[in-house]
Design a protein that fits this description.
Rossmann fold, 6-stranded antiparallel beta sheet, Glutamine Phosphoribosylpyrophosphate, subunit 1, domain 1, 8-stranded antiparallel beta sheet, 19 helices
């Protein structure tokens, strides 16, 4: 959510900024704007709507500049409109600021500034911050903008990633962060700033990731200067290579990023296993956790913390770990975890899962667990992300950039890594027979090929979508490890088609949800070959008795459920614990095609953001 791009150099800034904003559109936003440093001061252009609308607005404006900041906003404080869009100007018009995050004490600060005579044009917490910086710049009589920023941030409670221009300091760009990602790209004779690598990858691969409570001064005539908000200088900036390719950010001939990412799952899963599974020796090893493997083997309990789709992957992890490793597992919504005074012990292991590695609630859960002495393992998709730097150890999913807001390949890659972790620990603890260990490894190796076969059903799933497209509600049912698949399938449908959908354990239907079933209710059932197959058949019969329409996901060759279904999708037979990897794919395709038929923006669904970096 929200995107930051900034540039300082000798090139024209505006094309770089606009291109960068387009690269960040996947994060979700409702308005966009740019501020450019020009000879007569700062020029500000912003509006509600898409980046393309901002381009239209600027088409007859003077955009000549070699320095500027740009932003896409996802509304938190104040509705989406032109006034609330970023950047925001100080009252004297000499400072322009963009901001990701939330200033939690903005109302207290705002009242103080109002008492000093400041007037506000927006409802945002960001305008409070830029006025606060101006006030300190004047009242404290500091000579450097960076010092005014530092002093202002000492008064801020909350999270921020900011970039600031000053008409009085036209050669400098000031950036700072706490709890929201920000990186600095270092070019040959220029600087780039962004909230992730996508806007700058075509210009440079040399980046510095700002740490929390750091303030950086970018000036072409000086070395990069970084201090913390206590004014302690960083000895040197650690320059890293940006692990991202421009080709990965293109659609590659697909109509939408989401469809491309669904079809990338065989590769994403293979890449997530590469180097971790030795098929000749039937050995699973994850290098990223070796140092803390003993802690994991001796853990009395695993806690999995995540949000959204990653939480569903965590539920799959619960089944995998408890079944294979035989250790108790609790799966927590990261957003609730730290607010319920959880019991965390030093022999607990917390596994934090996040596609972006920047999910604010998940990061907060990590910090809480670390403060209690627990070992924290991360699973994320973005190298250099906050989560990867905060956790004791972890594993990257290697799914490649996921641009579509509705997560697809990240889910299956996360489940793959969880399966590898469970297999590794189970074998070393002696909880899994050698024959079963080999069987699961072999089946896991075959998953990419099985998904490739499922993707060939795309056209037939499109036909099923025609039945669902005009419905207002849907129910998804699954049992065992397929219950999280039902939850994930329902989430995909509601996220991108705006049809109300809910997932339930199939046996829970009779405890309330069955009251919703009628001839207009599509009921999507994951009825693959599993231990509870006959129980699922009984649950389907209960739905049919109430005239519900059955869309079933069954194992190849199934006859019983197929005969009972109005629509049926057959998928390759798979080891029961690995069925989420194959059963989730047709549900992703179903949601995609339903959303298309309803005329929805598949890649950028309303009100949603890709990386939820605020609470």
């Amino acid at each position: 959510m929200c995107g930051i791009v900034a540039y300082l150099g000798h090139k024209q800034a505006y094309p770089i900024l606009i291109n960068g904003l387009k690269r960040l559109e996947y994060r979700g936003y409702d308005s966009a704007g740019v501020a450019l440093m020009q000879e007569n001061g700062i020029s500000l252009y912003k509006c509600r709507g898409k980046v393309s609308e901002l381009e239209d607005y600027c088409s007859d404006k003077n955009t000549t500049s070699t320095m500027g900041i740009a932003h896409t906003r996802w509304a938190t404080h104040g509705e989406p409109n032109d006034q609330n869009a970023h950047p925001h100007l100080s009252e004297d018009g000499k400072l322009a600021l963009i901001h990701n995050g939330i200033v939690e004490n903005y109302l207290v600060l705002k009242q103080e500034l109002i008492s000093r005579g400041y007037k506000f044009k927006s409802n945002t917490d960001t305008e409070v911050l830029v006025h606060l910086i101006q006030d300190i710049y004047k009242s404290e009589q500091v000579t450097e903008l960076a010092e005014a920023v530092r002093l202002a941030l000492l008064n801020v409670v909350g999270t921020y990633a900011i970039a600031i221009l000053s008409a009085d300091n036209p050669d400098e760009l000031i950036v700072a962060k706490k709890g929201s990602p920000l990186l600095i790209g270092i070019g040959k004779d220029d600087y780039f700033v962004a909230s992730d690598g996508a806007p700058i990858v075509e210009y440079t691969k040399r980046v510095v990731y700002l740490e929390d409570e750091e303030v950086a001064v970018l000036n072409l005539n000086k070395k990069l200067e970084i201090k913390n908000i206590n004014s302690e200088a960083k000895k040197r900036a650690y320059v890293q290579k940006l692990e991202l390719n421009l080709e990965q950010l293109e659609k590659g001939g697909f109509e939408h990023y989401m469809l491309k990412e669904i079809f990338e799952q065989p590769k994403a899963i293979s890449d997530s296993m590469r180097g971790r599974v030795n098929t000749k020796k039937d050995v699973v090893s994850l290098g990223g956790i070796i140092e803390y493997e003993e802690k994991m083997l001796n853990a009395k309990r695993f806690i999995i913390a995540a949000c959204g789709t990653s939480w569903h992957a965590g539920l799959c992890g619960e089944y995998l770990f408890e079944n294979l490793v035989r250790v108790p597992v609790e799966v927590e919504y990261a957003s609730e975890f730290r607010y319920r005074n959880p019991i965390i012990n030093e022999d607990d292991v917390l596994i934090a899962i996040s596609q972006s590695g920047e999910t604010a609630d998940t990061i907060a859960a990590v910090e809480l667990a670390k403060s209690k002495g627990a070992t924290v393992i991360g699973i994320c998709n973005v190298v250099g992300s906050t989560l990867s730097r905060l956790t004791h150890a972890g594993s990257y999913t290697h799914a490649g950039p996921e641009i579509g807001v509705a997560s697809t390949k990240a889910f299956t890659a996360q489940v793959t890594v969880l399966a590898l972790m469970a297999l590794c620990l189970a074998r070393k603890k002696g909880k899994l027979s050698l024959s079963k260990y080999h069987q699961i490894i072999n089946d896991l190796e075959n998953i990419p090929e099985k998904i490739t076969e499922i993707l060939k059903l795309n056209d037939s799933i499109k036909e099923i979508a025609k039945y669902c497209a005009d419905k207002r509600n849907a129910i998804y049912l699954g049992r065992g490890i397929n219950y999280p698949v039902a939850l994930e399938g329902a989430l995909k449908l509601k996220e991108i088609s705006y049809i109300h959908a809910e997932g339930y354990p199939a046996a829970e239907m009779k405890h309330g949800p069955i009251a919703l079933v009628d001839e207009e209710m599509p009921v999507i059932v994951i009825a693959t070959e599993q231990e509870t197959y006959e129980k699922v058949v009984s649950n389907i019969q209960e739905v049919i008795a109430r005239k519900g329409k059955i869309i079933s996901i069954v194992s190849e060759g199934d006859t019983q459920v197929k005969k009972m279904s109005d629509f049926c999708i057959e998928i390759p037979r798979t080891e029961e614990l690995l069925t989420p990897l194959v059963a989730s794919v047709p549900l992703q395709l179903l949601a995609y095609h339903v959303a298309l038929l309803r005329g929805c923006d598949v890649d950028k669904p309303r009100n949603l953001a890709k990386s939820v970096s605020v609470e």
